[in-house]
Design goal:
The complex is a heterodimer of chains A (294) and B (314). Chain A has 294 residues and is mainly alpha-helical. Chain A is 73% helix and 4% strand. Chain A has a single domain (72-293), classed as MetI-like fold (Orthogonal Bundle). Chain B has 314 residues and is an all-alpha fold. Chain B has 2 domains: 21-68, no CATH class; 76-243 and 280-308, MetI-like (MetI-like fold), CATH 1.10.3720.10. The chains are: A mainly alpha (294), B mainly alpha (314). At the A-B interface, α1, α3, α4, α5 and α8 of A face α1, α2, α5, α6 and α7 of B.
Chain lengths: 294, 314
């Protein structure tokens, strides 16, 4: 029997590849590309709800100008979100790395500790975390019980103490937020070849040197992954003030066009930040020494 | 397996060298950190059991004088527990199962095939991960509402079936990494034996993807379970609320009680409903209990699996 048309091995390979990812592409068009296009359109149009549905009239860059000049709510929310991001992401990364190093050492009860470190991902997120925050349970009682703030006030000027204390307050949040990152770092630490440490031991390297010269360079790509994950996580969090603000504009004030414009401003800023991060990590790939071989 | 083997090799010279003191120090740090991690759980459990006289009693810090489940009965009632539980279960389990299948298929396609536009499409997957839901929420809402999907499970299930939905892009990336780490020989022999591409995927590669599937499943269930942003958009009536949404209202009810109480007191300032917080915590415990049980059951395999998913680019 002769096939109606013949395709080469290569053609078949390509066709099979496309068929595997086709569902994703369809989903991308339906649930991302089209909504993204429409929201861009909304951002430049004034929308009115009429009897025949939505009526759009061109509005130019008006919404974008308004966001920064007229709207008194957006800029503070944006600044708040950005400050949180800049403060929290490095803290999360450092803490996650520290915890991963602790957990990576061989000791009795490792698995139990690992499960505990992931617990906040389940408990302290979403509404439950909101509840805990409402009740002031997101601060460790140690700081309140022993009246640390007042005692320190005798030695440290208030102007320095207050930001420091608010950072201590958010420390619990940082710790609870780093569950996923700890696990990613742990997996990364497991992938460092033991032979390198052995060689370093032979040469008499200290643990400190081994960390900076072996561990850190090898897991740099994973630091990038974790940075991106933390940034996206912090940007899409429900407690994030910009998120809440946009939702309020869209679904309480029903100002769809303006909400879309704000969404785009937010997106562009995220994108810029991620580009900066990628630029900082631009050499991370080169440390990826013959990874393919293993 | 390989991880364990490495472990034993690594610990051998180190264990000799390490002194008792450093061991103790190590445990001290771990234990104190663990306290921070377990603290919310302890807090929720302890608060949810406390009665009015326990709160007033200065000698009671963590453990209430008597065991009383009254707050749980209240929260169970007000959360409409079984209804909310069913809504939560259908959305998170349904979406998670669909995401496992769809993201595995797509991840496999990206891991094993090269085709024109490969880099662009892979870039789009990353791009999808970065787009904040806020940017597209309005058109997406209109789209679903035009289809008449508001107050149904479809806005959660259908995107998941296409490899999207909550953090779908991340799951695709996890599967790409995982399948890249598997040896080619398995598929080659299957192909030589005459299995087609999909047959090879279904009967050879998918059964091997257990660790990645477990990780994706657990992440997906947890994130869907705790998510309130999308449910707040697509579940407009209380019959469809999931557990976290109902927990939100539980709070609103407590607030209302507070303001009513204030009115009755003739505007005297009451700082809180005496047991409002404790009821909230009982509700919070009920909300996360299914997840805690699931995690308690799966955590052993989960942490091991995560190391084997090649998430770290091994």
């Amino acid at each position: 029997m002769k096939k109606p048309f013949k395709i080469s091995m290569r053609g078949r390979h390509i066709l099979e590849g496309y068929s595997f990812i086709s569902i994703w592409v369809v989903g991308f068009l339906l649930f991302l590309a089209v909504p993204l296009g429409r929201s861009l359109y909304f951002a430049f149009h004034r929308l009115e709800i009429t009897a025949n549905g939505l009526k759009a009239s061109p509005n130019g860059f008006q919404f974008f100008r308004d966001a920064f000049t007229v709207d008194v709510g957006f800029t503070p929310a944006l600044i708040h979100t950005m400050t949180n991001l800049v403060l929290h992401v490095p803290l999360i990364l450092v803490f996650a790395m520290f915890s991963a190093l602790l957990l990576n050492r061989p000791f009795v009860g490792r698995l139990a500790f690992r499960s505990i470190f992931f617990l906040p991902v389940i408990i302290a997120s979403g509404t439950v975390l909101q509840k805990l925050l409402d009740q002031g349970a997101a601060t460790l009682p140690i700081f309140l019980q022993y009246d640390v703030a007042n005692k320190l006030n005798d030695y440290v000027p208030t102007a320095v103490l207050l930001p420091l204390l608010s950072m201590m307050d958010s420390l619990t949040l940082v710790i609870w937020d780093s569950g996923v990152q700890i696990l990613i770092f742990l997996a990364a630490l497991q992938s460092v070849p033991v032979s390198l440490y052995e060689a370093a031991d032979m040469d008499g390297a200290t643990p400190w040197e081994k960390f900076w010269k072996i561990t850190l360079p090898i897991i740099t790509p994973m630091i990038l992954v974790n940075t991106l994950f933390s940034i996206v996580n912090s940007f899409t969090e429900i407690r994030n003030s910009v998120m809440q603000y946009i939702q309020m504009i869209a679904f309480e004030k029903n100002n769809y066009g303006y909400a879309s414009a704000l969404g785009w401003i937010y997106f562009v800023i995220i994108f810029l930040i991620i580009l900066i991060v990628l630029y900082i990590f631009r050499n991370a790939g080169s440390n990826n020494y013959n990874r393919e071989e293993r | 397996m390989l991880g364990e083997w490495k472990e034993t090799v690594r610990m051998f010279p180190m264990r000799k060298a390490r002194s008792f003191g450093s061991h103790l120090f190590h445990y001290a740090i771990l234990l104190s950190l663990s306290f921070v991690f377990v603290y919310p759980m302890l807090y929720i459990v302890s608060q949810s059991l406390m009665q009015v006289n326990d709160i007033a009693d200065a000698t009671v810090q963590w453990i209430p004088k008597e065991l009383n489940f009254e707050h749980f009965r209240f929260a169970f009632d007000r959360l409409h527990f079984w209804r909310s539980f069913m809504n939560s279960t259908v959305t998170s389990l349904g979406a998670a199962l669909l995401q496992i299948i769809s993201c595995a298929i797509v991840g496999y396609g990206f891991a094993r095939y090269r085709f024109p536009g490969y880099n662009v499409l892979l870039g789009l997957v990353l791009f999808t991960f970065l787009v904040p839901p806020q940017t597209i929420v309005v058109p997406l809402y209109m789209f679903f509402s035009d289809l008449g999907w508001i107050n149904t499970y479809l806005p959660f299930l259908v995107p998941s079936a296409f490899g999207h939905g909550l953090r779908g892009a991340l799951f695709v990336l996890i599967f790409i990494q995982f399948f890249r780490g598997l040896p080619y020989q398995l598929e080659e022999s299957a192909r030589i034996d005459g299995a087609g591409a999909f047959r090879t995927f279904r009967s050879i590669m998918l059964p091997l993807a257990g660790p990645a599937m477990l990780v994706v499943f657990l992440f997906s269930v947890v994130w869907h379970w705790n998510d309130v942003f999308e449910p707040n958009l697509y579940f407009m009536v209380s019959e469809h609320y999931n557990l976290p949404q109902s927990l939100m209202i539980l709070n609103a009810q407590a607030e209302q009680q507070l303001s009513e109480a204030q009115k009755m007191m003739g505007g005297a300032m009451l700082t809180s409903v005496p047991t409002g917080y404790n009821r909230n915590m009982a509700g919070a415990l009920l909300t996360i209990l299914p997840l805690v049980i699931l995690y308690g059951y799966a955590q052993r395999y989960f942490v091991e699996s995560l190391e084997r998913t090649g998430i770290a680019g091994e």
